[in-house]
Amino acid sequence: MSHVKSLADLRKLKEDLQGKMSLREKSNHPESMVQVKVAMATCGIASGAKQVMEFFINEFDKRNIQAVVTQTGCMGYCYAEPTIEVTVPGQEPIVFGYVDTKKADEIIEKYIKNGELVEGIIPVKYQSIEINKENK
Amino acid sequence: MGKYNMHVLVCGGTGCHASESETLLQNLKTEVLEHGLENEVQVIVTGCFGFCEKGPIVKIMPDNTFYTEVTPDDARVIVEEHLIKGRKVNRLLYTHPETKETVADSKHMDFYKKQLRIALRNCGFIDPENIEEYIARDGYEALARSLNELTPEQVIEIIKKSGLRGRGGGGFPTGLKWEITRKSVSDIKYVVCNADEGDPGAFMDRSILEGDPHSVIEAMAICGYCIGSSIGLVYIRAEYPLAIERLKTAIAQARDYGLLGEDIFGSGFNFDIELRYGAGAFVCGEETALIHSMEGLRGEPTVKPPFPSVSGYFGQPTNVNNVETLANVPPIINQGPEWFSTIGNEKSKGTKVFALAGKINNVGLIEVPMGTTLREVIYEIGEGIKDGKKFKAVQTGGPSGGCLTEKHLDTPIDYENLIASGSMMGSGGMIVMDEDDCMVSVAKFYLEFTVEESCGKCTPCRVGNKRLHEILDKITQGNGTREDLDRLRNLSHVIKDTALCGLGQTSPNPVLSTLDNFWDEFVEHVVDKKCRSGQCKALLQYVIVPENCVGCTACARNCPVNAISGERKEIHLIDQSICIKCGVCMEKCKFNAVLVK
Question: Which residue, A83, A108, B24, B505, is the most exposed by fewest CB within 10 angstroms?
């Protein structure tokens, strides 16, 4: 390792290193950012949940969106795997079914960025959909 | 994919380390490899999470899952269930002691809700053996800014304005200490970090050094810049092998990065750090004794003045700061003195780390803002007394402190309040006692410690504490008199007024505070010859209940001193003058006819 010679050097080094820690930093304040939970049961994995999760992690990074992507157990919508739950700060969580990477892209661009609902929502509770419609 | 999507943090503090967290770590790494997750999951060892009661701790990020009491065998289930399938392992989650509900993530644990972590900011978050993780969290930025943008006077002014005071117990303003050492004229000056933590039950400094050694190194370099010193010395006890190892690794890494050594950050400032090992004498936590010990002399204190800031290590100006004090310095410079001084109360700023121990549900390491009440610490963070027993007292400040009772529970914790209540902040040990603890015995325990640890230099401490201990022993043996209580008090005051150093001057505190707060209990011991908690064996009386005794002779046959008399099928009797209170009769009686009073 070459020596860190100035404050500017240190700050540059810090920036390079921060990426490695960002996952931990973010999980200190999950409520303040977009949270995506990917159902990762056997059925989910078989339908490609892993690729979807990877896609979200990479794309959030590329598109500079502050988000936490975690995996969770079976949500019970095995017919609609892969399923994901998306929570935008201050809003009720929404569950999307049949999420492939194309769908994931649509969810990021339309729902997460602009708050527009897209096809494929699984109504968990009738009420939560209503609330989201009002917010829209 | 170049990025991990999950981090598994395994506690590598001394407590968890002792419960096989090292093997657990290896098992987790092996399982991760076997399941081909090495590019997705990063397994990291960290410093203490603080929740030592339920160690070893494993925390999974980003979902903040907090697993407790994890054994090496649990590695497989964590990897297969949680890491692969996203199902939390319920049996390893923390269970609330009262509601019996499992708590899935650390954000919802009472233990963490009231805490504010400044000195412990990186403990249980970063890998202490990886300087890069420290740098990623603003590490060495405070040093770089001090050297490149600020004059030593400006840095001292920042520390003074923040209101930071010594966390080792005395509470001396840190900025003022630095200023005094700066003004002392000499070619050579020293920065000393006091890591000689000796209070029974205290492990704050150890945990900081184990969990975040770079924060102490950075702060020592900043202090060196301020006072005009290029040599730092860490006085650490040899009983802290893990802390020593991590500190050594950290120093070597800092040198590799040019953060210690010559011309740091191109400023022309040179600084390096060496370790000095202590043999574990309590008195060496006192700064003059510490310095003598480092010089190779006996660890005995000398009269102040001269203060070390004028004449310390080998007669040169020396600035001695405690580990926790130093750990506060980098955040103060990074975030500004105004930020720091909004935390805490009027005279005590910032936070304080405490080591919670004793009869409390959550034994562990905590950090709370100054001014938090004892009740919040004991009942909210500590989640109350073990086994639903009644709170009796809390001992703060170690052998130099005192016992606080129910009536002090709502006192905000700060330097002045604790002294006013007859105890002191000390370095942060906090031992909780319940109704089963005898306060005379507690006072005796601390005196035993002081007698053992007294260096023997001055008479009040060497002889006086010995006499105090003898009187307390006499009382617990049931031979105390009322006059003894007056004698205890008088002698305590004499020792306080005449002893040479901090150890002697404060050693009678446990006696005085228990006398003040538990006077009735002392009187019971000497007048009624009773110990209400049953801890003083000599004061117990074994008696036979005539109604229950069937005259089976079991007790009489087993009594080792033949203190029990009585014929077959007749009621037996214990001769109190012979009885040695061994309790065998009670154990042998099948008819509940032996009672202890």
Answer: B505
What CATH number labels B439-528? 1.20.1440.230
> Is residue A2's pLDDT more than 80?
no
Residue B346 burial by Cβ neighbours in a 10 Å radius (0-12, 13-18, 19+): exposed
Which stretches within B45-197 are classed as H helix? 75-77, 85, 110-113, 131-136, 141-149, 152-162, 174-183
User: Which residue from B minimizes the CA distance to A44?
Assistant: B85
Residue A2 domain-assigned (yes or no): no
SS3 B7: strand
A107 touching B (Cβ < 8 Å): no
Distance between CA atoms of B77 and A77, rounded to whole angstroms? 24
Q: B-chain residues within 8 Å CB-CB of A41?
A: 85-87
> What residues 358-397 of chain B have any CB closer than 8 A to a CB of chain A?
none
A136 pLDDT higher than 60 = no
Model confidence pLDDT, tens digit, residues B319-373: 999 999 999 999 999 999 999 999 999 889 999 999 999 999 999 899 999 999 9
Residue type, A133: K
DSSP state of A30: G
Report the CATH fold assignment for B6-113.
Glutaredoxin (3.40.30)
CATH topology of domain B131-341: Rossmann fold (3.40.50)
Structural domain of residue A114, as residue ranges?
29-135
- The per-residue pLDDT for range B371-401, each reduced to its tens digit, is 999 999 999 999 899 888 999 999 988 888 8
Nearest Cα neighbor of B301 from B461, B162, B166, B93 is B461
Give residue limits of the domains in chain B.
6-113, 131-341, 351-434, 439-528, 540-596
- Cβ distance B62 to A70 less than 8 Å, yes or no, reads yes
CB B217 within 8 A of CB B254: yes
- Amino acid B313 reads Y
In one-letter notation, the amino acid at residue B304 is K
Minimum-distance CB partner of B136 among A17, A45, A69: A17
Mutation site for B-interface testing, chosen from A27, A45, A55 by largest number of B Cβ within 10 Å: A27
Which residues from B are below 8 Å from A69, CB to CB? 5, 62
Q: What are phi and psi of B37, to 5 degrees?
A: -105, 10
> Which residue has better confidence, A135 or B306?
B306
How do residues B175-207 score in pLDDT, each as one tens digit? Answer: 999 999 999 999 999 999 999 988 888 899 999
Q: What is the pTM of this model?
A: 0.86
Give the burial string for B388-398 (b: 16+ CB within 10 Å, else e).
eeebbbbbbbb
Predicted confidence (pLDDT) at residue A127 exceeds the cutoff of 70: no
Q: What is the CATH number of the domain that holds A107?
A: 3.40.30.10
Q: How far is B75 from chain A (nearest CA, A)?
A: 18
* DSSP for B341-352, written as a single string: HTSB-SSSBSEE
B1 reaches A (C-beta below 8 A): yes
Average pLDDT over residues B552-573: 92
Residue B233: helix, strand or coil by DSSP? strand
- Chain centroid to CA B157: 30
Of B511, B516, B592, which Cα lies nearest the Cα of B555? Answer: B592
pLDDT at A1: 58
The answer to the question of residue A33 being in a domain is yes
Proportion of chain A above pLDDT 70, given as a percent: 90
In-domain check, residue A12:
no
Chain A residues inside the 8 Å CB shell of B4? 20, 23
**HSE-CB of B195 using CA atoms within 13 angstroms:** 34
The reply to whether CATH 3.30.70.20 applies to domain B540-596 is yes
**Residue B105 pLDDT level (bands cut at 50, 70, 90):** confident
Residue B103's pLDDT is 84
| B140 with A69: Cβ contact below 8 A | no
How many structural domains is chain A composed of?
1
B351-434: CATH topology:
Ubiquitin-like (UB roll) (3.10.20)
